[in-house]
Write a structure and sequence with these properties.
rod-shaped, about 260 residues, single chain
């Protein structure tokens, strides 16, 4: 009798494996029941019967399920491969994007460092220019001070040398004039005095000779006073400029020399 819901049985050959140990057939009890079951062939549905018809339909369904399962497996496998390829491409693209961002960041840092370096170089150049300008200004100031000092020294030399020279010449002239006056007073006669009035002491009474008591002046630089004194003493000739007598009258446009 067929069961209530007859379904086909799928029979597949058993794979022969070498992992079995011993002889399993020796362990099987071979009695009459065993031999009886071995003698009966497998039961198959007869063509055209109810069981055969539904067995074929079950077989078609199983084959369709197997085909669809294979197709689904292939689709899933293709989808997995495609997803893996897309993921690999996206990973490469993401790595490229990260590398591009890193490169842009490094370029930005390099540009910033270059700007800082340029600013530092500019500041250094400005500092060097300021230092050079300050050094040039100091040198110019020192040169100006030196020129001013030299100019003042030259002006001081020019101012002191004529004064000393003029003073020296004036002293020589005074000494020469004194020598001439002494010689003249020794040569001229004494002035008349009233009767009964004592004569005042003077160079003429004390030194009647013009050659007595004369000493050459020491302040004359070129010895002109000594020469003039020698000429007046030896020759006895009065010099060109004689000293006026005491108490003499002078014209309004004339003044005493000494």
């Amino acid at each position: 009798l067929s069961p209530r819901f007859p379904r086909p049985v799928t029979v597949e050959p058993m794979d022969q494996l070498d992992d079995e140990e011993g002889l399993p057939e020796k362990l099987v009890i071979k009695n009459q029941q065993f031999h009886k079951e071995r003698e009966q062939p497998p039961r198959f549905a007869q063509p055209g019967s109810f069981e055969y018809e539904y067995a074929m339909r079950w077989k078609a369904l199983i084959e369709m399920e197997k085909q669809q399962q294979d197709q689904v497996d292939r689709n899933i496998k293709e989808a997995r491969e495609k997803l893996e390829m897309e993921m690999e491409a996206a990973r490469h693209e993401h790595q490229v994007m990260l590398m591009r961002q890193d490169l842009m960041r490094r370029q930005e840092e390099l540009r910033r460092m270059e700007e800082l370096h340029n600013q530092e170089v500019q500041k250094r150049k400005q500092l060097e220019l300021r230092q050079e300008e300050e050094r040039r200004r100091r040198e110019e100031e020192m040169r100006r001070q030196q020129e001013e000092m030299m100019r003042r020294q030259q002006e001081g030399f020019k101012g002191t040398f004529p004064d000393a020279r003029e003073q020296e010449i004036r002293m020589g002239q005074m000494a020469m004039g004194g020598a001439m006056g002494i010689n003249n007073r020794g040569a001229m006669p004494p002035a008349p005095v009233p009767a009964g009035t004592p004569a005042p002491p003077g160079p003429a009474t004390m030194m009647p000779d013009g050659t007595l008591g004369l000493t050459p002046p020491t302040t004359e630089r070129f010895g002109q006073a000594a020469t003039m004194e020698g000429i007046g003493a030896i020759g006895g000739t009065p010099p060109a400029f004689n000293r006026a007598a005491p108490g003499a009258e002078f014209a309004p446009n004339k003044r005493r020399r000494y």
